[in-house]
Sequence to fold (89 residues):
Amino acid sequence: MNISFTPELEQFIQSQVASGKYASTEEVIVAGIKLLEESESIYKGRFEELRREIMVGVEASERGEVMDGETVFHQLEQKLQQRRQQTGE
Fold:
């Protein structure tokens, strides 16, 4: 596989090898791909978590367990003020 890099990326890769952190260009590229893979995994996990949280909200709404937006924001503001008082902000 042939890969072309911008001069800036190539310089970065070479600087990583020169620093001794990586033994070769291939190691730098593999490390970058592993970081991308990890990032994607975290994203997918968070996406699924958000999907579950949304479903909890939808189900509560279907049961009639809802609050108007003004009440919700008022409660959130109160919680924020309490946290600030607790942390001394």
